[in-house]
Amino acid sequence: MRKKMTPRQQKFADEYIITGNATESAVKAGYSKKYANTNANKLLQNTTIRKYIDERLEELKSQAIADQQEVLEYLTAVLRGKAKGTELVGTGGGEQEVKMISPSIEAKTKAAELLGKRYALWTEKQQIEDITPVFIEDVPEND
User: Fold this and answer.
1) At 129, is the pLDDT very low, low, confident or very high (cuts 50, 70, 90)?
2) Which of 76, 91, 116, 138 sees the fewest Cβ atoms within 10 Å?
3) Does Magnesium show up as a keyword for this record (predicted)?
């Protein structure tokens, strides 16, 4: 059976995920400053708290960080001109408006280059010489 955390331990763990500071998180969770200064790291050593923090960080990481598929899809969208960006355009009189624009030729070229590197479309030219070993029988028959 999995051990449950107290509400204060839960608050500590959630705060620690946000701040990365054990002492500050302990105080925000309701522990006294004296306790937090001397024992906050002990809370991190609690296996139930540590497991909860690790699981939550893994969940957050998977949601926040682009995976390989997402990066490749984005680069392809830029290359094909489907990704749009914004640009400020002057309208006169010191005013500006936001305008949606397609990727520039430079952006498309960079996307193509990165995709090409990923799929090894371009390889470095290497000169390979055909070297065939030659065996010379120069060992005397007495040996």
Assistant:
1) confident
2) 138
3) no
